[in-house]
Amino acid sequence: MAMPTKAQIFKHWMEWLDKRGFDWGEPCCWACKRYFDAKYDLNKPSATREDIINNWDRVPLQRCHIIARQFDGEDIPDNLFLMCKNCHDRAPNTKSREAFLDWVEKQDYTSLVQEDIMRELRTFELVDRVDDVNEMLADKELIKRFFSNSGFHMNQARGGLEITLSSIFSQIAHELKRGNNN
Ligand SMILES: [Zn+2]
Predict the structure, then answer these.
(1) Contact at 8 Å (CB) between 26 and 44?
(2) Could you tell me the distance, in angstroms and rounded to a whole number, from the CA of residue 84 to the centre of ligand 1?
């Protein structure tokens, strides 16, 4: 049997997603709920059910097995789940559908970002300087300069920041060290 498309997988999970408050027209990861970009939204007031379903084929989500292949998990929509790359990498490889869905319900993008920030604070030895870091993060001009220095693209969409945190934190660390020497 051929691997189902993302649209076919979405179609199977529509009611499940609806019960959990997912917006069918604004695709996000089904685990952490990370939202990608407005360009994947279905901005079409006259959209049919079919348009809504087919739109999911465009989204950069991965098709993940619930019961892993190595445990004879099948390539059918009921055993497949759409997730971002990060969640796919971290998801349990399990024989238990229940354990997988239990893990899914506990994912949360905000706390994942917080963990990532904590890791960068440790990397750049800034844990003791959280107040200074916060002050810098609140300085829009400074952040704008950090962004332009890094030469990446800033996407203002919800959760759609296409940068690595380390690019910013390395500059914060540099700036704070420079401040110390003044
Ligand atoms: Zn995710």
Answers:
(1) no
(2) 4
